[in-house]
């Protein structure tokens, strides 16, 4: 005699009393629920289906995609949008290897997510079971934690352990493989450790060394030409308010990159974008928040050698890497900036006032750069100038539009022009430079924030990598506005080849077919359009918004025009 109530099965124990049992898959679901996860992204496989059964009982949505890379990217995107860890569940072997790119991207982007991979049964260990691979060995270098779950009793316990590790220092991904027999087996409920929500993980917010913060306050009091770069950790730490209070109270010009874009709204007197190189050359105090000295920063060489440089980061290993600094503070961006502003209050009134000329100097540089580029942003040329396309997108965005960039050359254009109107409304791959994140990020953003509009700009090469999951967007009714800057090329690479090997070898391995992606969208049940006239870009965007469907606007841009970043080959310097 047995009876089942939800995920728990009862069977007679000693003395005829009912003993409750629970399966490994249901323990996974309970652990996910305890962490606040309300959706998993997955591609099905026989190793993992008991997790689905558990998710149904726990009220966790299951979104099944067409490629495991998309599942992992979506978990990454979910974490960025919600501030909660994302979760992807894939089968063993090729299912797990397909997800490696998504995990690696989250690792470099400091995004907290858990990838759960299937594995052959423990009883078949080293026997050559179906899809058996050394997953943990492969995942260890690109995760903060990777382990095999050894027994059903430990399933929920180790899931919670993986989530803890996601938040050790700077956030990042964890990986667990769970053998099939561990997932399917049932154990007495009282023998399974099931962590309670909010009681198995401590706060990881660090306020920074008080003496270092006092020193930063003193530097601010004496600086005539300070500037601050607000990087992705400003959004990761949800430090927007503290960052805004800091720059306004101390009258410091602010530049933003990565997920830090949108911290200040366009038009704010402390919001700067086009004068960053000038500021980094002329400033006497440069504060770098939540951004490593990697290729995007010229490994720190773009900062004035005479400026005082302060670096604030969640990870002590990042501070002072590649470039010497004058002051390093390890801690939560919001807590550190708030403490520094408070410590500096009363000391900087005169300094803040005298910085008016510095802000005016930067604004003049900013205005000159904008005016120089404006004719191209308004160009009526055909084929369409990419600057015109990204200008139209920028004008189209609202305060509730999450903007996603997925591509090479076309997204480099957008980085100069597109300004999100609100915090947390910019998404890009991050420092790994992964193409193909766009569809997954749009999926996660719309699923997590159905009140938001989602617009994704793709390069045609980037879209091709994961574009079939447009059908997943249709299937789950996740409307978004997709725009493809189509030049039938991998133009960022093509330019470098032309310079290095000559025009006669410029198109080796980088030229794509002329694909009508608007028709592709219609084929899969969405809204699609082809645009060749720049005057039709804005009307097409409006029609996509009004359609209420997943959409693709295929905009044919000039293949002979390259972004300045591409021509400078800054990604390789």
Automatic annotation (TrEMBL):
InterPro entries xref list: DHS-like_NAD/FAD-binding_dom, THDP-binding, Thiamin_PyroP_enz_cen_dom, Thiamin_PyroP_enz_TPP-bd_dom, TPP_enz, TPP_enzyme_TPP-bd
All copies of domain Thiamine pyrophosphate enzyme TPP-binding, residue ranges: 406-555
Descriptive protein name: Thiamine pyrophosphate-binding protein
Domain named Thiamine pyrophosphate enzyme central: residues: 213-339
PANTHER family with a match to the protein in the record: 2-HYDROXYACYL-COA LYASE 2 (PTHR18968:SF166), THIAMINE PYROPHOSPHATE ENZYMES (PTHR18968)
Alphabetical UniProt keywords: Thiamine pyrophosphate
UniProt key word Signal: no
Cell division recorded as keyword: no
Family: Belongs to the TPP enzyme family.
Superkingdom: Bacteria
Pfam families: TPP_enzyme_C (PF02775), TPP_enzyme_M (PF00205), TPP_enzyme_N (PF02776)
Needed co-factor(s): thiamine diphosphate
Domain Thiamine pyrophosphate enzyme N-terminal TPP-binding residue range list: 23-132
Signal sequence residues: none
């Amino acid at each position: 005699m047995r009876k089942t109530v939800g995920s728990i099965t009862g069977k007679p124990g000693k003395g005829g009393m009912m003993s409750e049992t629970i399966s490994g898959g249901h323990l996974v679901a309970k652990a996910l629920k305890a962490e606040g996860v309300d959706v998993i992204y997955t591609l099905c496989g026989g190793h993992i289906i008991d997790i689905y059964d558990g998710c149904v009982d726990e009220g966790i949505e299951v979104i099944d995609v067409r490629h495991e890379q998309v599942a992992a990217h979506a978990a990454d995107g979910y974490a960025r949008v919600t501030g909660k860890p994302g979760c992807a569940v894939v089968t063993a072997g090729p299912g797990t290897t397909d997800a490696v790119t998504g995990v690696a991207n989250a690792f470099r982007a400091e995004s907290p997510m858990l990838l759960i991979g299937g594995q052959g049964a423990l009883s078949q260990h080293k026997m050559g079971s179906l899809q058996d691979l050394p997953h943990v060995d492969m995942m260890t270098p690109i995760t903060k934690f990777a382990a095999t779950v050894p027994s059903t009793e430990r399933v929920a316990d180790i899931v919670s352990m993986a989530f803890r590790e996601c938040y050790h220092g700077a956030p990042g991904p964890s990986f667990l493989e769970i053998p099939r027999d561990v997932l399917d087996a049932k154990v007495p409920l009282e023998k399974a450790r099931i962590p309670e929500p909010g009681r198995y993980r401590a706060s990881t917010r660090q306020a920074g060394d008080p003496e270092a913060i006092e020193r930063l306050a003193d530097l601010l009091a004496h600086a005539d030409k300070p500037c601050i770069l607000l990087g992705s950790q400003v959004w990761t730490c949800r430090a927007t308010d503290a960052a805004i209070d800091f720059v306004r109270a101390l009258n410091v010009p602010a530049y933003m990159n990565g997920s830090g874009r949108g911290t200040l709204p366009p038009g704010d007197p402390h919001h700067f974008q086009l004068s960053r190189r000038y500021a980094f050359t002329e400033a006497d105090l440069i504060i770098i928040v939540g951004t490593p000295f990697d290729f995007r920063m010229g490994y720190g060489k773009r900062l004035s050698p005479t400026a005082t440089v302060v670096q604030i980061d969640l990870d002590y290993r990042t501070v002072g890497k590649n470039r010497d600094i004058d002051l390093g503070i390890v801690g939560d961006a919001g807590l550190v900036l708030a403490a520094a502003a408070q410590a500096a209050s009363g000391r900087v009134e005169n300094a803040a006032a005298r910085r008016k000329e510095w802000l005016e100097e930067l604004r003049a540089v900013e205005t000159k750069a904008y005016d120089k580029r404006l004719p191209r942003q308004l160009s009526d040329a055909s084929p369409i100038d990419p600057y015109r396309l990204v200008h139209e997108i920028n004008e189209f965005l609202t305060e509730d539009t999450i903007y996603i960039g997925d591509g090479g050359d076309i997204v480099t254009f957008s980085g100069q022009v597109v300004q999100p109107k609100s915090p947390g409304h910019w998404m890009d791959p991050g420092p790994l430079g992964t193409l193909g994140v766009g569809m997954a990020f749009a999926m996660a953003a719309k699923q997590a924030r159905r009140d938001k509009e989602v617009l994704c700009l793709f390069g045609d090469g980037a879209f091709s990598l994961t574009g079939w999951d447009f059908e997943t967007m249709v299937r789950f009714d996740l409307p978004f506005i997709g725009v493809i800057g189509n030049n039938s090329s991998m133009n960022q690479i093509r330019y470098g080849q032309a310079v290095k090997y000559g025009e006669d070898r410029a198109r080796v391995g980088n030229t794509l077919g002329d694909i009508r992606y608007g028709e592709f969208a219609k084929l899969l049940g969405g809204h699609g359009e082809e645009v060749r006239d720049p005057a039709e870009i804005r009307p097409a965007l409006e029609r996509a918004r009004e359609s209420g469907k997943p959409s693709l606007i295929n905009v044919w841009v000039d293949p002979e025009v390259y972004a300045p970043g591409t021509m400078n080959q800054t990604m390789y310097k």
